[in-house]
Input
Amino acid sequence: GAATASFTLPGNLTTYRLMALAVGEGRAAGSGRASFRVDLPLLALPALPRFLRPGDRVKAGVLLYNTGLAPGKARVKATVSGGAVTLEGEASQEVPLPRGASREVRFSYKAADVGQARLGFAVSMGGVDDALEMTVPVTRALAPAAASVSGATTSAVRQGVARLGDLLPSVGGLEVRLASTALTGVEDGVEQLVRYPYGCLEQQSSRVLALTAALVLGKRFKLELPGEPAEMIRAGLRNLLAMQHSDGGFGYWPGSQTSTPWLTAYALVVLHRVQLAARASGVPVPQGPVDSALSYLDKHARAGAKQVRYAFSRRAMMLYALSLHGRKVEQLGVGLASQRKGQPLFARAMLLAALATDPGTAGDKEAAALTRELNNSLRVDGTWAHAEEDLHHGYKVLMHSNDRTSAMVLLALLAARPDHPMIPRLVRWFMLGRKQARFRNTQEAAWALLGFWDYARLREKVVPDFQAGVWLGRRRLLTARFQGRSSSENRATIPMADLLKLAGATARDLVIAKEGAGTLYYVARLRYAPRELPRAPRDHGFTVGKEVTLLDAGGAALKPARPPRLGETVLVTLTVHSTEARRYVVVEDPLPAGMEALDTALATGSRAFGAWKLWSSSSSHDHRELRDDRVLFFRDLMQPGTLTYRYLARVTSAGTFIAPPARAEEMYTPEVYGHTGADRVTFAP
Output
């Protein structure tokens, strides 16, 4: 017998390949294939932009094909509904259409408002009709921005909020976060720290240090720690002391024969913290190995002239370790401070910590100077601060990383000036500024938790017991109660539409206040977008540039230059400059509605334009997206300097269009951004 299936074909001119497979009982099977071509006598295909923005004017319509009719005139009638787009000029046209020919028929439209526009076209010729209807979204171009304030108070703070009437009600709002400790989120990295399996002295020491700090902070904030930290500290301490040699120094690996002053200093830092936590952990430290290590290190610290490469950094670490155990290092520290010019930031931080731990009049001047230097070296991004130093790879022998340097600066400032205003910003960097609050290695984990430990000990002595509130003008936005130590926080978000009802017409005061014992920590961030796109560029951490080059058929720059026309291809070059290292950067270039980006990664991606040249002359990116209305490049870590990104785009619709600003932003710090100015572009037919 025979089986029959039917289906409806889409209305286009296409050759189809049909494949069929039949399977019966047992082993009966068969297959067949055929091809057929659809030729409609009259066909209309859309020639429309993928989107529009309010204020755009576009020539759009249909592309007509006469495949089987006698030559004649085709009549096209346009309709529009939805209210977002209006039709300007005549709503119908008649055009000659020879047999076997095609013809564009375009109408004039203006995008009036945000929404969905339905554009319809009815075509008739020689007694044959065709029709189509398409939806075109009309979206608003935005120039998002953000501003924030953060800090701590024992009473109340007042922050002025400017008039908000010129902002879009549909974008952004105010977010307020309150906490009784700066260490909100400290538990995020704890589980990671207790499972380090490595066996060298540095990793064993760092693991013991991290476990000890985690145990102390965990008890303070009633955190649930995985495993049994006290038992792990005891086991780690045994492994650590097993690496001590007869001269009192420590070696890098179990069984090694050579003692290393830097590693011995680090071991003494660890042993000091384990001693401080003995009551909390129940793990005592035998004094004999400590005294032996101190004698070994004191001898090497005083033999400054005989130190090997990176002598300043090594000696600073030694002096810090000695000072923790009560040895007098002030004179040695003052002498070393005179050699600090050009030395690493982390080493100067350790020297400051040593001078602060063994205070005296002789070192006061140098300690004050080092404090200023550390403060001036920090990079402030929004509500947090961190350290970046461009050291060569040789410093990897001392386990250098920028996050470890940030932790050492935090530790040193806490020792020298516990009330320093940059301290909460450094803590916030570790809590919020790094992706997922994860530590990349044991050194970062250990030193960061040391800083957290000292922060809690020095700046959060009072057990919180207070009520807090946030007001905008006379309207209360948030009430929170903090009783006892906790690392949780209270949040409130007010959408911009509600915020405009509260404070749209006039300037207001944002008041954050508390009543009771303890310190209130706060962050308030306002995200917004102005109604009018900015015409001038802005630099709030990034300087952004954009250049559009019209290309000829061979992919070279067209000379003399002129505005691009329908169907032509352009090369877009974006430049982003920063004087500081930036993390998780997004570079966004919104497209004019009459232009589409070309994906040169595809085999069909216009090989004639030398796509390979784009990659060879562009900066590397970690991710790229080509969307209907924008092109985005992502870079996880941007070093100081300039990034250059290039892409190809083609003009697909004639008209006059808004060209929103190209923009760069740190994704997790929206206060750090930059953009070009907005413009209007005209693409001729």
Summary: The mean pLDDT is 87.
